[in-house]
């Protein structure tokens, strides 16, 4: 198991390297110097890092693979080609596969993230991510395992038809994790002239503001904030302002323990 976890060809190894890199950056130049490295609930967030970064993904990938195996024979009976057999980008240069897959994946995830805030029962799962009160790199990994199901279910079909090389997918996963960590980090930057294209901690912190900007919030972009500017969901105050408080309304009613958060909100009515 350890060899699998630390194989440099695997995602988990790079997740640890990216995490260490962002932790060092925060120690060298924290945006909020008063925020401690060992803040409240940091131990629980290390659980989410390991669980969501490896075990949840592996388990759900196994289930997804089984479901696809059951579905493909039915598609064959209906004379419909299996989605993974289409391979629109097969044979294309790796850099072209990387750019197209990353852009499409991020656009789709922007839409899914938007839905997580607009659809009440999806918001119940997404509350876990917004329960963090002191934003830092590891906050990127605090999310409910059902979000993996939702994201993969809604993005699988258009992405699998591209037929992108596995190494390209791994590279995109690493880059996406790096930018996701940085966007949640205790760092003060916004990419300068690229601030209208690439998401940043100075912009994403406002997504976690307890005071909603707009009915459902703003800044839904994951890697690229370009989608927010294009679709009118961007919010970036001038200067280096920060929200006074992070979270969501009625957060005091949200469970704080690990096990209750794992099973929340099953068996509960949407708030």
Question: What would you say this structure looks like, in words?
Answer:
Helix 4 (94-118) crosses helix 5 (120-130) and helix 4 (94-118) packs across helix 7 (166-184). The protein has one domain. With 271 residues, it is an all-alpha fold. The chain contains ten helices and no strands. The model is unreliable at 1-6 (pLDDT under 50). The chain is globular, with a radius of gyration of 19 Å. The longest helix has 36 residues, at 42-77.
Q: What are its keywords?
A:
271 residues, mainly alpha, 10 helices, 0% strand, globular, disordered N terminus
Judged by helices, strands and strand pairing, the structural class is mainly alpha
**Number of helical segments with 4 or more residues:** 10
- What's the number of structural domains? 1
What multimeric state do the chains show? Answer: single chain
Q: Identify the overall geometry.
A: globular
Helices and strands, with pairings:
Elements: H1 2-5, H2 11-28, H3 42-77, H4 94-118, H5 120-130, H6 145-160, H7 166-184, H8 201-204, H9 226-231, H10 258-263
Helix pairs in contact: 2-7, 4-5, 4-6, 4-7
């Amino acid at each position: 198991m350890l060899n699998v976890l630390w194989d440099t060809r695997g995602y988990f190894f790079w997740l640890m390297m990216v995490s260490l890199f962002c932790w060092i950056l925060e120690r060298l130049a924290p945006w909020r110097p008063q925020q401690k490295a060992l803040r409240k609930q940091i131990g629980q967030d290390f659980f989410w890092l390991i669980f969501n970064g490896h075990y949840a993904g592996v388990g759900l990938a196994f289930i997804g693979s089984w479901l696809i195996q059951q579905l493909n024979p039915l598609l064959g009976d209906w004379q419909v080609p299996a989605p993974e057999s289409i391979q629109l980008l097969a044979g294309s240069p790796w850099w072209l596969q990387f750019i197209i897959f990353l852009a499409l994946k991020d656009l789709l995830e922007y839409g899914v993230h938007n839905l997580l805030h607009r659809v009440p029962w999806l918001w119940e799962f997404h509350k876990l991510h917004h329960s963090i009160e002191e934003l830092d790199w590891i906050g990127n990994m605090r999310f409910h395992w059902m979000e993996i199901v939702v994201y993969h279910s809604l993005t699988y079909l258009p992405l699998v038809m591209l037929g992108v090389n596995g190494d390209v997918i791994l590279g995109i996963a690493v880059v996406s994790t790096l930018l996701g960590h940085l966007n949640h980090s205790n760092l003060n930057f916004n990419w300068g002239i690229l601030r209208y294209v690439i998401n940043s901690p100075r912009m994403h912190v406002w997504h976690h503001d307890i005071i909603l900007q707009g009915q459902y919030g703003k800044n839904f972009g994951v890697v690229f904030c370009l989608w927010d500017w294009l679709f009118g969901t961007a919010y970036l105050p001038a200067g280096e302002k920060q929200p006074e408080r992070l979270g969501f309304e009625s957060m005091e009613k949200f469970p704080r323990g690990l096990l209750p958060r794992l099973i929340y909100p099953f068996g509960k009515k949407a708030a």
